[in-house]
Structure formats: structure tokens, C-alpha cells
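Extended Data, panel c. Modelled sequence:
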Amino acid sequence: MKINQLLNAKELKVVHKYLPNLDLTVDLTDDGLADFEEQLDNAYINHEFTNEEINDIGRQLEPIVDKLAES
């Protein structure tokens, strides 16, 4: 399954907002998920998200990450 097939339109919009260069058509394999998580970590760093305090970005992205990890 591909990332863009698993996420709904609202989730895809959020992902594209914070990860505009992410290829959403990649298969959600271990490598695809690892690449997504790496880019997500970079987005967290760029937007000053920390594990100690969940900000608005974290609240938007966290359920998406959980959904992808569960697939």
C-alpha cells in the first residue's frame, strides 16, 4: 500500500504542508516508512517540536504517524 492510499485528503494536506518534498506514492514498506519517519523528524526539528511539549504541528502529525505505523 502507498502512503497516499492510506491517508485521507485532510491527512495528506497536513503531510504536504510540513513535508512538501515527500513522495506520497512510495510503497509503505519498512524502507518507505523509515524514509517518512526521517523526514518527519526533520520537520519536527525545523518547527521546534520536542517530545517534552506537543505543539500544534505535533498534534496534527502524531495521529498520522501512528496510522502509518499501524498499517
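The first helix runs from residue 3 to 6. This feature is highlighted in the accompanying rendering.
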